[in-house]
Design goal:
Two copies of one chain form a homodimer.
Chain A: H1 2-14, H2 30-48, H3 62-68, H4 70-79, H5 96-105, H6 118-123, E1 126-127, E2 147-151, E3 156-160, E4 167-172, E5 179-182, E6 188-192, E7 198-202, E8 210-214, E9 219-225, E10 235-242, E11 245-250, E12 256-261, E13 264-265, E14 272-273, E15 278-283, E16 289-294, E17 299-304, E18 312-317, E19 322-327, E20 333-338, E21 343-348, E22 353-359, E23 371-375, E24 379-384, E25 391-396, E26 409-414, E27 425-426, E28 433-436, H7 444-447, E29 449-454, E30 460-465, E31 473-475, E32 481-483, E33 487-492, E34 498-503, E35 513-517, E36 523-527, E37 535-540, H8 541-546
Antiparallel strand pairs in A: 1-8, 2-3, 2-37, 3-4, 5-6, 6-7, 7-8, 9-10, 10-11, 11-12, 13-14, 15-16, 16-17, 17-18, 19-20, 20-21, 21-22, 23-24, 24-25, 25-26, 27-28, 28-29, 29-30, 31-32, 33-34, 34-35, 35-36
Chain lengths: 549, 549
Amino acid sequence: MKFNKIIIAGLVAVLGLTISANAKSVKLSKSQMKKATQVYFDRCAGCHGMLRKGALGPNLEPKKTKAMGTATLKYIINNGTPGGMPGWGKSGELTKAETSLMAKYVQIKAPMPPEKSIVDMKKSHKVLIPVAKRPKSPQNKNWKDNFAVILRDIGKIAIVDGKTKKVLSVVKSGFATHITRTSASGRYMYVIGRDGKASMIDMWMKKPANVAEIRPCNDARAIDTSKHKDYLDKYAVVGCYWPPSIVTLDAETLSPIKIVSTASYTIDKGVFTREARAAAIIASHHKPEWVINVKESGQVWLYDYSDIKNPKITMVEAERFLHDGGWDLSKRYFLTAANAKNIISVIDTKKGKLVANIPSQGKKPHPGRGVNIDSKKYGPIWGTGHIGSNDIVFIGTDPEDHAKNAWKVVKKVSLPGKGGGNLFIKGHPNSPYIFIDRPVNPDRKLQTQIYVMDKESLEIVKTIKIPAKYLPVYKGKKGKKIISRGPVHFEFNADGSEVWTSIWGNKMVNTPILVYDSKTLKLKHVIDDKRLVTPTGKFNVTNTMTDTY
Amino acid sequence: MKFNKIIIAGLVAVLGLTISANAKSVKLSKSQMKKATQVYFDRCAGCHGMLRKGALGPNLEPKKTKAMGTATLKYIINNGTPGGMPGWGKSGELTKAETSLMAKYVQIKAPMPPEKSIVDMKKSHKVLIPVAKRPKSPQNKNWKDNFAVILRDIGKIAIVDGKTKKVLSVVKSGFATHITRTSASGRYMYVIGRDGKASMIDMWMKKPANVAEIRPCNDARAIDTSKHKDYLDKYAVVGCYWPPSIVTLDAETLSPIKIVSTASYTIDKGVFTREARAAAIIASHHKPEWVINVKESGQVWLYDYSDIKNPKITMVEAERFLHDGGWDLSKRYFLTAANAKNIISVIDTKKGKLVANIPSQGKKPHPGRGVNIDSKKYGPIWGTGHIGSNDIVFIGTDPEDHAKNAWKVVKKVSLPGKGGGNLFIKGHPNSPYIFIDRPVNPDRKLQTQIYVMDKESLEIVKTIKIPAKYLPVYKGKKGKKIISRGPVHFEFNADGSEVWTSIWGNKMVNTPILVYDSKTLKLKHVIDDKRLVTPTGKFNVTNTMTDTY
């Protein structure tokens, strides 16, 4: 037995991998390791981390997983947990063999993923259309009302005309794009793939196309641009999951300028965290500053980019593990979710300080950017939903004129039924309503409805059922009939008169974008285009430019 | 052969170590590995890095060392190189067996040294004398003129009365102390050992003693305190080599407050450098800021400590690899040596920017803090010597009133003879001379002289030969007769009327401190005390408080 262990350790060392010494060592072939490493990256790393130290999901280091054993791990990977772990086998995303492979793989020490230098990045850098050959003026009259729609599972972005509702172009992006952001002028739409590939689309073109691309990371979730008036359209910034870092880029060409490591010490026990990942990035409108969530260490970094090669970073202790967030109505305060702790951390970007860590009164807050309301009753408030509970909560954000409401939950509203599952919530100053999705609720009926909340009463005043004809049926593994999930994510047009949602399908079918009148709540348009495969996030140029939500 | 390789890799993996796969693999037993790891830490890590990526010394990763082979490595370790590598065998510091062991060890992949959390640090934290039990007023009338003298090889600090020249006390410190710094008031003397142990001595006590200690790192070179008027005696800060980090401490108790990682990307190729070490730290007098050299990445960090848990750090690109440096006369500009590149980088701490990278016109500049002169001819200038050449150079530091001299070498003076070997240079506003040592010059005569430079003519006006009676003889390995090295390091008393130097001996003998009149250059006192074993750095309370040099 001991002999075997040594042989395995040696073999794996030769492969550039190491394996934890244990009497019941798990064996995987080189091809199995390769396969499992890919599956881990695609399905597991987001929540558990590449080094498996844990974040939204628990620690999965061999010390723990070996104690659990293969059978238990297989059960969990197959069935999921009430804590939020998806049942990858049950849902058909992983086969039985893959489930079994992953149960073994997570008992082997995580291989150290590769680093990336500026020199490495430059190899992936392409200026597809030089600045001089790009249009000198917008070639679409209504370009500021156009939408970028993420076609998640096919690695593409659809640019849809906000007026005609026609798909103007479909451009390639990185894998499973997480977000798109515009430059301050709105001209360029920046896209970051889950695989760390950044690309930029020129929205002035008649058929908007990619004009530059680069791969600054191997895993990423965030991109934004310089929005301060003295730096309009000057810089882009990528928040990398791996290597854990912040990469600044030239906004016209995506040429890399600077890398800053986010490896840092946790705010609680002061533990060095190699994998402290740059999660959300949001650009200040008032200062030459990006607000960056460093997920695992629980810090919010205020990154002053005014001297781009010599950044000044204020490292604010907030809470672990930071996910996403957005501005309050004044754009002075950044409200962000530490979703594993059910906390909303509030950063005062004027003072560069933490204002409060507020219990969100729900499970796993998932604000996206959240929603802002200038409420008659409460004053300015910011709201978020939760993945793990039915709660939509609102927090007062005006300590000056509404001090008694500030930095606490002033209203909590429960979505009907059970099972939580909200991902996004969206508003617009010109809409009397806010819109709420629930695509990860297990109940089919609850999953396929839009929840409409009145901005004054803060009550759910309507649920809009998605007609079955807009929920395509497709074949899953083993020919199983699967109906598309419900609507996911909302975006308004520029004047707030329409709200768009999309049906979360599978890459085997195309699914529509549904356009509702934001006042009458009537379905105005159905954008049904063969190219719209897995449309998820939708980003209107004007609302993204101005951070309107 | 292949079988052997696998077995070794496996065995070393079991030991928590890994070994590079190669047909000619080197084998070391567990006890040999332990011994070699200790020798490497003591002798090699300072210049080559714990991870062997190279800094002042070249890269020593297995890819390179294996190509060199055991015989070549053994030769170099024994004989040294003209580039500055000491001949460890030749000098008798390593035995033949140790030389041979190290030639093998450096062909094996560096083991990853352990991390250290705030929780870990707290285990080593001791308040030896609580604040309430310390004196309420100074118990020595002349305490501000007392000296802390590093007894390097015995891990102790001698406190010497600046007036009576008596040794008041000898206190324990970390191993091979690199530097001591005072609090802003001068009351406490902070000491950092090469082994990362920090301690603080209460200079108000009749017999100054340690009042607190902690080990925030496993390897360190720098310590300083908060010197801005609003934070006097409030914080201490340690610059750690390993784990590469900046650790802030409470200045009265050394209780740990915050750790910031210095792992960062190099300024040239943007390469992630886990071992980017916090080298020198110097406290600003004008701002609540520490100026910190991050050696391997080539950055100077301006660390704003005004909000101690939420620091604001300006990361200024300077040059690789940063070592030590000091203030100009106005204390606005920090001049620091990138010694492997023969560059002096100048940071304007008012603007938080690099002013210039100035070729030092010599080999391996080693300023310590350097020396400042308000020259009639050149205006304010700052000077440094070099380890690798005979050059003492002066750089103009006043861009406003002496613009044509600013940020260039205005004067270069050659020390007599050959072989470089200067380590320290020191001045005081009340002394007409600056004093220069040369302890690492191979020539016995040149090594045992003090070089006296006139501050106006900038010429060497005298060499003071150390009488043989102050250079004790002792027995080296195999009974070889060895004479102590020459004088090393200078410090003035508070009013600048005296300059102190010490004889760099070996831990088998005590060596004296020699006190010269700084005007007549006469030897005034010889402090000869059995407890003064390997006296090296000497720090006068007033001059350290005020950064006078």
